[in-house]
Design goal:
The strands form three sheets. A five-stranded mixed β-sheet has the order 2-1-3-10-4, with helices on both faces. It has a five-stranded mixed β-sheet with strand order 7-6-8-5-9, with helices on both faces. Mean pLDDT is 84; it is low at 313-338. It has three domains: 4-99 and 201-221, Periplasmic binding protein-like II (D-Maltodextrin-Binding Protein, domain 2, 3-Layer(aba) Sandwich); 106-187, Periplasmic binding protein-like II (D-Maltodextrin-Binding Protein, domain 2, 3-Layer(aba) Sandwich), CATH 3.40.190.10; 247-343, no CATH class. The termini are far apart. It is globular, with a radius of gyration of 20 Å. It is α/β, with parallel strands linked by helices and 345 residues long. Helix 7 packs parallel to helix 8 (280-292). 41% of the residues are buried. The chain contains ten helices and 14 strands. Strand 12 (257-264) and strand 13 (269-276) form a beta hairpin.
């Protein structure tokens, strides 16, 4: 049998390379006669440009750089964190494979091995999103939670090398890709901290119509993980649009049913629903629509944006702030298979 070759492009950062190598290793184990090649590209984003936005493995500029490499035929496939993707994908690109989901939960790193409950009042904990800050602040009001910009590398330097913060919260899957599980003090249950949409999911992006690459990746593709991603992306698109709002969502496939839980702000305003896997997109979209129909949703979002209280009336009033939260309008939904959301206790 002829050996087949499949090339992957990756950024040079340790996280991006390790994530890509994880997919390559699993693919070659599943398809021994497949020869996977890794082409590493230097990041086009330098210096302060990387500090302008939160991201995990790749910033928006770096994702666009990798997409151009695909479109210019300099790489055939690219592995990305699902929550690093910029949607919609450019014309000519599509998701070719969604491997089995990794750990979707959040992990707490502490140099002394302390649990969050053991932290001293007034301690500072770094987080990578408004979502994490809002939920964790509600659970541990005596601690300070600081949103760190510039990605995982800078967050790790801030915590481990400079000791500027007392702890760090990041996705558990990221700690596994970096090989630093040994310094994880605890992993948060979703009943306490609901993860961000797409967390723990990797995707393989390639050119539209590359049926050969899709076929070679078939052994690694998980229909269950793909359905979970579809539901969470639909939830995210309806809820967040292109804004950085503190929302969490987690979809899990159980037998032939997809169960999804979503929340805003502190995480107390939770709803959950379920339906057939083939209706994943409608279920995720419908859950977000239901959450947005509740007046307390806007209070959650405002409190998360202004953890120290709303600005003085001289600067802004609540009506003006509500107008800033633009809800994306869409076509009527096909909610066949939709189940009325259940209130979480």
């Amino acid at each position: 049998m002829k050996t087949r070759v499949l090339s992957f492009g990756s950024l040079s950062s340790p996280l991006a390379r390790n994530q890509t190598q994880t997919v390559l290793d699993r693919l070659q184990q599943a398809v021994p006669r497949l020869n996977c090649q890794l082409n590493v590209f230097s990041s086009p984003v330098k210096g302060k440009a990387k500090l302008d936005e939160p991201f995990l493995a790749s910033s928006r500029g770096e994702v666009e750089f990798l997409e151009r490499k695909l479109l210019d035929d300099e790489a055939r496939c690219v592995v990305l964190e699902a929550d690093d993707m910029v949607l919609p994908l450019p014309e000519g690109l599509e998701i070719l494979c969604v491997p089995d989901r990794g750990n979707p939960f959040d992990a707490f790193l502490n140099r002394k091995g302390l649990l969050m409950d053991e932290m001293e009042a007034g301690g500072t904990v770094g987080v990578l999103s408004l979502r994490a800050r809002a939920q964790l602040s509600a659970l541990w009001p005596d601690l300070e939670f600081e949103v760190l910009k510039g990605g995982v590398d800078r967050a790790m330097e801030t915590h481990l090398r400079r000791s500027e913060i007392d702890g760090l919260v990041m996705p558990a899957a990221v700690t596994e890709h970096l090989g630093i599980q040994g310094i994880v003090a605890e992993i948060f249950s979703p009943e306490f901290v609901l993860p961000g949409p797409g967390q723990g999911l990797l995707v393989v992006i390639g050119r539209t119509g590359d049926h050969q690459a899709r076929e070679m990746l078939k052994a690694l593709h998980s229909e269950a993980s793909a359905a979970e991603l579809q539901a969470e992306q639909a939830f995210c698109a309806r809820m967040i649009s292109d804004q950085d709002l503190p929302v969490g969502a987690l979809a899990r496939v159980e037998h032939s049913q997809l169960v999804i839980t979503g929340t805003t702000g502190s995480g107390l305003n939770r709803l959950a629903t379920h339906g057939p896997v083939e209706k994943a997109e409608a279920i995720g979209d419908g859950l977000a629509t239901e959450i947005l129909s509740r007046i307390d949703t806007f209070a959650d979002l405002l409190e998360a944006d202004f953890p120290d209280g709303l600005p003085d009336e001289d600067h802004a009033d609540e009506d003006d702030l509500l107008e800033d939260i633009e809800l994306e309008s869409g076509d009527s939904l096909d909610l066949d298979g939709w189940v009325e959301p259940e209130e979480s206790e």
